[in-house]
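Because discrete structure vocabularies remain unfamiliar, we turn briefly to a single example record, giving the amino acid sequence and backbone structure tokens:
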Amino acid sequence: MAINAPSGGSGMFWEINITPLTDIFLVLLIIFMVTTSVAVESATHVNLPDATNTSPENKGVIVTYTANHELFVNSKDVPENDLQEALGDALSRVDVKTVIFQGDRTVILGDVARILDVAKAAGATQIAIAAKRVTNLPPLPQAGG
């Protein structure tokens, strides 16, 4: 704070310099913006399975299931109990009734089947499974060997 006396002489006059306060608020705003974008981005990280034959699919409703058993419908966090309602709402807003499932490679097959059953009950006519394109896949293990 700076204290300035008026040139008339009788009395004290206080003036507050708000420039440092404004600088602090701007720095805090930038920090919050950066951490929020990082937190949102890392919340829906999914390690997709590998596949050699993939095709781009950009129409429909995207259901993401993370390794931490979190569900997202079009990047919106949805509790598992509300999945059918959220999927029904999302499917009613698109022309193509396709559900694109993005599941982490560590997701259990039973969870995938349950989620896809809910998608079918919500009105999905087609279901696609998202995968990461690779050129060479390792061979599958032989049964009974």
Notes: The chain has two domains: 2-43, 50-133.
